[in-house]
Known about the structure:
The complex is a heterodimer of chains A (about 120) and B (about 110). With about 120 residues, chain A is mainly beta. Chain A has strands at about 5, 10-15, 20-25, 30-40, 45-50, 55-60, 65-75, 75-80, 90-95, 105-110, 110-115. Chain B has about 110 residues and is mainly β. Chain B has no helices and 11 strands. Classes of the chains: A mainly beta (about 120), B mainly beta (about 110). At the A-B interface, strand 4, strand 5, strand 9 and strand 10 of A face strand 4, strand 5 and strand 10 of B.
Amino acid sequence: GAVVSQHPSWVICKSGTSVKIECRSLDFQATTMFWYRQFPKQSLMLMATSNEGSKATYEQGVEKDKFLINHASLTLSTLTVTSAHPEDSSFYICSARGAGQSYNEQFFGPGTRLTVL
Amino acid sequence: GIQVEQSPPDLILQEGANSTLRCNFSDSVNNLQWFHQNPWGQLINLFYIPSGTKQNGRLSATTVATERYSLLYISSSQTTDSGVYFCAVDNTGFQKLVFGTGTRLLVSP
Lengths: 117, 109
């Protein structure tokens, strides 16, 4: 149980284009999902919290117009990196808050490696 | 915000050895999780342990919330245990996990 998937697993794009990353909870409903960013050999940093049916809340320093988050259903959240630039290249990881007995745990997707040329 | 420090930063073990990883945090927490990030980047849940002691096979963890630290024990290590171990805490009540600095473990045959 508590499986989270992400798509795509990796993407290469040209500078100035937009990229959408999907995060799905496969076997449970997730009212809350989270998006993290990880640079090489560094820790994970929380970017935003995504709640189903409401606007995402962003951490300080994260540009909400650059990183658009949509949580349209109880099993899907999307992150769109708009007008991507090389400095946006990173490993993006989503997580979902568990359900039932696992409500206080987060379960993570496999991550999406974004390279902007 | 809350600070989370892990030690040691790097650890090299021979297969079969035991190890203890430490996570110190600067404020009281209501959530603490341990994760293993494998070489492909996937985070694997090890323990949800805001307090107390838990065991799962060769792994066990203890959190002493009043003293603001948690320990992860790995016994009889295997090469598949290699990767980075993170602890992550939340002190907001909104599940906003703050990740520690990580311990990079390499288990050699």
